[in-house]
Amino acid sequence: MDAFERLLWWLFAGSAGAKTRAIVLLAIREEPSNAQQLSVKLKLDYTTVRHHLKVLAQNRIVVTEGNSYGKLYFLSDSMESHWETLLAILQKANRRGVK
């Protein structure tokens, strides 16, 4: 298991907010979006979305283009290359009932 895979386990199966982070990340993969768009699309509080985007960006899971309010979030190259690993982690976490 490489360091990035360990990070994915922690972010998406071992820490508070894992399920919300997964929902946000799946939405970004479907369509790069800004925080406001994600908040509306996912019916989540804007500050909650911003918090999880910050965590994802700090851990190199997502990258941004643009600046300030309208910046778009995209999957990082590392996340793209580990996508199948993430799906397996999410499946295992779901079986364990991770919230």
3D structure, described in words:
- This protein is mainly α.
- The chain has a single domain (3-84), classed as Winged helix-like DNA-binding domain superfamily/Winged helix DNA-binding domain (Arc Repressor Mutant, subunit A, Orthogonal Bundle).
- Helices cover 65% and strands 8% of the residues.
- The protein contains 6 helices and 2 strands, in the order ααααββαα.
- It has a two-stranded antiparallel sheet with strand order 1-2.
- Helix 1 crosses helix 2 (18-30), helix 1 (3-13) packs parallel to helix 6 and helix 2 packs across helix 4 (46-58).
- The longest helix has 14 residues, at 83-96.
- The protein starts with a helix and ends with a helix.
- Uncertain ranges: none
Major sheet attributes: 2 strands, antiparallel
Biggest sheet, spatial arrangement of strands? 1-2
> Which structural category do the helix and sheet elements fall into?
mainly alpha
Q: What is the straight-line distance between the termini?
A: 23 Å
Brief write-up:
This protein has 99 residues and is mainly α. The protein has helices at residues 3-13, 18-30, 35-42, 46-58, 77-81, 83-96, and strands at residues 62-65, 72-75.
Identify the notable features of this structure and list them briefly.
6 helices, mainly alpha, 99 residues, 2 strands, Arc Repressor Mutant, subunit A
Secondary structure: elements and pairs:
Blueprint: H1 3-13, H2 18-30, H3 35-42, H4 46-58, E1 62-65, E2 72-75, H5 77-81, H6 83-96
Antiparallel strand pairs: 1-2
Helix pairs in contact: 1-2, 1-6, 2-4, 3-4
